[in-house]
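Narrative summary of target 7.
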Amino acid sequence: MSRIVTGLILVIGWLLLLLVGSYPLFCLVITAGSGVALYEFLRMSLSGSEYKLTFPVLVLGVFPLLGASLWGTSGMTSSLFLAFIVLIILTVVAFPILDNGLGFVSRHWFGIFYIGFCGAHLILLRSLSNGIFWLLVLTAITVFSDTAAYYVGRKLGTTKLYPALSPGKTRAGAIGGIIGGMVGGLVVASIAFENANLVMVGLLSLFLSAIGIIGDLIESLIKRVSGVKDSGQILPGHGGLLDRCDSILLTAPVLYYVLYWGHAALLK
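Modeled conformation, tokenized:
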């Protein structure tokens, strides 16, 4: 029951943020949420004396989000590079207390890129013309895919998808999730856009659903290596915030660049 209640609260809050909230509020919420997700990642990846560096790495992780909020794509990429330079300097300065300096900079550059950089694309999507509607399409793809994967996997799943990383996921669930994501994307796109090219939107929805599954597996890899079941406990019944946004961290950048380069193909 707690899982259902938490899920409903998240969906309602997200829809209110998209449909009623202002752009600055959206940027603030995404930046704060990404900060929480990055903190969960750091808790899983830091060890020993590295815990002293949690705050500076966390600050570096929000650089791309702040850059995207204030200056768009160019601000995001330049802020990401600045974070990289500062992380290298931090690693060199802290090297005497680190067990593995190369491991430290590699792991935390991944966290900054995976959560900070990828999460910043939600802000870039929001800033596009009709960006709110495309975010609704992306939300539908994610929700329908997750829901279909869960129920199809429970009913029909026998063969594991990738037991080395995620014993709970099945091939049937993955197929159900991809189809469910396509249905969700088509339904919302047909409502949001009068001139939507439903064939292209359907293909895009299939692709994004598959990318979302890869996002789930990436987070499963992080948790498996770290030896934890959930990234956190902030969401009753769901675990951590990173557990909930792992799919969209990969699908948001893909959707943004598809719209940036091929927007005309999606609308008649």
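The chain is about 80% helix and 5% strand.
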